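Example 9 (inverse folding). The structure is encoded as follows.
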């Protein structure tokens, strides 16, 4: 994988690759710094195949980009860690991967861990002369490049392994270009979407990535205006908050031509509001997962966003998508079932967990655990998770349908629905909502509002108002953290 940076640096040595608002690095500087730090890590004792923890915040996005490539040039395997985790969670995952080294700007996260060495991302050891000869490293392109924790929305995180071959296959030849010259985001680099989808994006397209250290609505809008970026990227919750800003019209966002969202279905009302606020911008909804990788996702064409709100579009070239029933038989158009994906690049696996790997990737296919259906044009609609489907009185109900209806209410900022045990019905529905700034939610009025849009059995019997919904670092609502 690090060779991809070398190729890009030859083509665009003076183009800014990363800008974390306090520091910038060009492709040429990124390449040279990774050489120097890679040699320094090797001199310090980092060996091929060693696991290096990278719990680094977006405030040091440039440092993370350098450390990631440097560790791989030393032959090591990178292990990005969500900096919102607690020390106990970090310890569990570090033990799972048997990590020996770490680079972090949050050293307290490593409390209780025994590591050989910990470095600050802005103080990596430099010794370019000792950089290992890449051709002499004791493995080929099928070697492991990184181990990314799953999002943990359904249980304890597993480690998803990505090989160098898969990353390079997703990048193409490293000389591609993109209509997006610069992109602003606030997605943590330590997750799959942030790491492969955004941090490594410049290597594929030559794009400059501007990273806001932590998401702040007014700061984000101001940064987009000052940097004159071509694109914005974030999760649907971030986009809704931007649209709710009372000062939105005061920022000059005339250069923004693209709005990319992902990690969760985009509520239809958000699509409509975004199209009205930025009529000159193309809205692209992306679907993927840590297990699927970049090649295993789908993309909704910009012109289809308004015509098909809620859709995540068609598979990437070379990727197959099927919707199957519980007996693994493909379902016809329009019928919901579990989404299965097969890509043309090497499949991933779970770190040292062959049983879970075999269950998740049977016969070269990926069982996503997501529920959806393909429409008559071949576009994919996501309706929920297999484990989230609520069977109320014998009827299967997809929470996302109710959540979309809740989002249509003018006072609702965030919404989530989950099932709870019920003595008679088997399961019943509970809704959770958070109000927009300055708004008040009347529960009875909201239930009446939903009753005008949904079948009566889909209206939650109980609705709970919270200040905000629990989310993980990638912006996904963690339903297991909602009140019992």
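The amino acid assigned to each position is listed next.
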């Amino acid at each position: 994988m690090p060779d991809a940076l070398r190729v890009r640096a030859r083509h665009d040595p003076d183009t800014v690759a990363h800008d974390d608002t306090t520091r910038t690095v060009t492709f040429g500087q990124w390449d040279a710094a990774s050489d120097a730090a890679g040699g320094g890590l090797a001199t310090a004792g980092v060996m091929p195949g060693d696991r290096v923890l990278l719990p680094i915040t977006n405030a040091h996005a440039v440092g993370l980009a350098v450390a990631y490539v440097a560790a791989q040039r030393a032959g090591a395997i990178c292990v990005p860690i969500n900096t919102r985790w607690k020390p106990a969670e970090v310890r569990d995952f570090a033990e799972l991967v048997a990590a020996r080294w770490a680079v972090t700007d949050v050293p307290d996260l490593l409390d209780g861990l025994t590591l050989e060495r910990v470095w600050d991302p802005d103080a990596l050891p430099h010794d370019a002369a000792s950089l290992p000869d890449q051709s002499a490293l004791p493995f080929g392109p099928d070697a492991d490049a990184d181990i990314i924790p799953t999002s943990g929305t359904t249980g304890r995180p597993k480690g998803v392994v990505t090989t160098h071959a898969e990353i390079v296959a997703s990048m193409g030849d490293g000389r591609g270009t993109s209509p997006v010259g610069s992109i602003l985001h606030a997605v943590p680099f330590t997750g799959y979407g942030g790491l492969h989808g955004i941090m490594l994006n410049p290597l594929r397209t030559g794009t400059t990535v501007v990273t806001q250290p932590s998401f702040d609505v007014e700061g984000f809008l101001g940064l987009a205006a000052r940097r004159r970026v071509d694109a914005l990227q974030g999760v649907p919750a971030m986009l809704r908050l931007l649209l709710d800003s009372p000062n939105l019209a005061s920022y000059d966002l005339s250069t923004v031509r693209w709005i990319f969202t992902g990690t969760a279905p985009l509520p239809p009302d958000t699509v409509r509001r975004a199209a009205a606020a930025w009529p000159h911008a193309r809205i692209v909804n992306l679907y993927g997962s840590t297990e699927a990788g970049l090649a295993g996702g789908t993309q909704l064409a910009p012109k289809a966003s308004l015509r098909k709100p809620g859709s995540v579009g068609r598979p990437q070239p070379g990727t197959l998508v099927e919707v199957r029933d519980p007996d693994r038989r493909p379902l016809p158009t329009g019928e919901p079932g579990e989404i299965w994906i097969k890509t043309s690049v090497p499949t991933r696996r779970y770190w040292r967990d062959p049983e879970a790997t075999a269950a998740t990737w049977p016969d070269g296919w990926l069982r996503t655990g997501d529920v959806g259906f393909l429409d008559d044009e071949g576009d994919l609609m996501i309706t929920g998770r297999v484990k989230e489907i609520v069977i109320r009185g014998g009827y299967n109900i997809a929470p996302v349908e109710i959540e979309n209806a809740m989002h249509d209410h003018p006072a609702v900022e965030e919404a989530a629905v989950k099932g709870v045990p019920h003595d008679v019905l088997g399961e019943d529905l509970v809704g959770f909502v958070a109000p927009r700034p300055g708004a008040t939610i009347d529960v009875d009025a909201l239930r009446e509002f939903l009753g005008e849009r949904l079948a009566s059995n889909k209206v939650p019997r109980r609705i709970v108002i919270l200040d905000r919904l629990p989310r993980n670092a990638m912006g996904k609502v963690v339903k297991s953290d909602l009140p019992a």
